[in-house]
Design goal:
The protein has helices at residues 40-43, 51-72, 115-129, 131-139, 162-179, 188-195, 249-259, 267-280, 303-317, 326-355, 370-382, 392-395, 400-405; strands spanning 2-7, 12-21, 28-38, 89-91, 152-158, 183-187, 217-222, 227-234, 237-243, 359-363, 387-388. The protein is an alpha/beta fold. The chain folds into two domains: 2-210 and 394-420, Nucleotidyltransferase, domain 5, CATH 3.30.420.40; 217-385, Nucleotidyltransferase, domain 5 (2-Layer Sandwich). Strand 10 (359-363), helix 11 and strand 11 form a beta-alpha-beta unit.
Length: 430
Amino acid sequence: MIILGIETSCDETALALIETRGSEAGMEMRVIESLVHSQAGLHSAYGGVYPTLAKREHGKNLVPLLGKLLEKAGMQAGMGAGAPEDPGVRGLSERSGSGASSAGRPETAGAPAPIGAVLESFREEIAPQNPELFETFAAADFLKGPAPAIGRIAVTEGPGLEPALWTGINLARMLGALWGVPIVPIDHMEGHIVGSLVPSDAANGAWQRLHDAPMPAVALLISGGHTELVKVARIGSYEILGATKDDAVGEAFDKTARLLGLPYPGGPHIAELAHKAWEEGIPAPVALPRPMISSGDLGFSFSGLKTAALYAVRAAARGQDGALPDAFKKGLAREFESAVSDVLSSKLAAAIEAAGAGSVIVGGGVSANHALRRAFQEAADRYGIPLFMPSRHISGDNALMIAVAGAFGSSGARSTTPGSLRASGTKRLS
């Protein structure tokens, strides 16, 4: 079966196609294609994600990106109108897919409907709510032809920015009605867990199974909007052990980067400065706190760390006409990254012990930080258990992990009707 994944929880417009075979116990998958259209450049002026802009951009780009995805996968002759081009779109491969249309459609939610009927049935609701999405859907010639051999649609239902989530959900609803295929709502955080177990994200690559992570596992999920430790009894069964009480770790990286005059998203820029500080032997200009490192529980708090960085920046800027010396920026970035690493690795070790974990899974965009990855590997090595971390492509928001979550574990059994889909900005794993 071929599964289409749709991800629009924040500022990345993402679509992916995977193919699966075999029963769930021995299910194998291969990546057909995965594309991400980034809005980071548009949001950088705001120092963070502007929800209304994110929603509008998703509406403009989803259908053209779908045309490009199907064309690259060899499932559609035409690309549709105005598919976004590089550098905004990041693909896993420039090769066309092979064999993508050979699989049948073993499950259906109903008979496919003519596009005119689909447009009329959704016009009153979606046209006012997502005008850009509705207009591009109506204008896409490739949607007026035969349905591609897609057997299931997996779409992020939450958590995230609700206006952005609704755009992806509304596309899934219209495609589900147009093609007559079931829709599976996916928890974004489950996507990060499952995505970290994908051995290879190579497009048109070999058939593969998810890594066999010894259970129970502890998952550390770190991104711009989330910092939480989760006990994974099995894929589909989760217990949140601890979460941030205020800022997420990725948010703290971004806000600290902004204090240093660095562009959004700030995490990679902080990491680059920290690396230079280590290379050049630049010491930390101040000692930053390690919030809640000795709290005795598995909670996090990063607002105090961000505030301490603010005070350090203000002190350094006095008498400098507001300008910060390069050595100060590098040293503070080094100390900030070290503080985050100390807290996360300490809490991870405590969670491993509390859960009796047989493995560690790390997911989310902040997991791309090399210093943090080393710290997590050291923590897992101390307990003699395997660590599973995502590839660079899967670490950020992407639809490949959503498609995989829709195929494996309990998600595949949760197909629903288009009318029952709902965005949940504050959804929690359970």
